[in-house]
Amino acid sequence: MAWGTVLAAAPGAVLRRCPRTPAGTAADAVVRVLGIRHVVQGLATATGVMPAAWSTAPDALHGATMACLALGSARWRTAACADLAVAAAFTAGDLYAARTTVPSA
């Protein structure tokens, strides 16, 4: 949820950390929406609305879309690769949490 909050609150600051990534209001809006998605997903998982195992799907799907964007757009490649790395880390964390979480009876 912390990463989502950073993305939602300061998308331009995050994008500026990615060399060769064009800045603009559209890019900021996309990053802000992705941040909000992270926050909602984190809240849903933390409150038990969404099982930890289900968190794997949106993170893996997001990683796959970032891989496609990195392959298809030189303009967005740096940002997409950085986001792919984050999505892969979240997916790995989700898988680990799903394996170690004991289901309640």
Mind explaining what this structure looks like?
The protein is mainly α. 73% of the residues lie in helices and 0% in strands. It has helices at 2-9, 11-16, 25-46, 56-72, 77-100. Helix 1 (2-9) packs antiparallel against helix 3 (25-46) and helix 4 runs antiparallel to helix 5 (77-100). The model has no long low-confidence stretch (mean pLDDT 87).
What labels describe this entry?
105 residues; 0% strand; single chain; mainly alpha
Mean pLDDT: 87
Shape: globular
State the helicity in percent bands: over 70%
Helix/sheet category: mainly alpha
Number of helices: 5
Biggest sheet record: none
**Quaternary organisation:** single chain
Radius of gyration: 15 Å
Count of distinct strands = 0
**Unreliable spans:** none
The secondary-structure element order is: HHHHH
Strand content: under 5%
| N/C terminus separation | 27 Å
Helix-strand layout with pairing:
Blueprint: H1 2-9, H2 11-16, H3 25-46, H4 56-72, H5 77-100
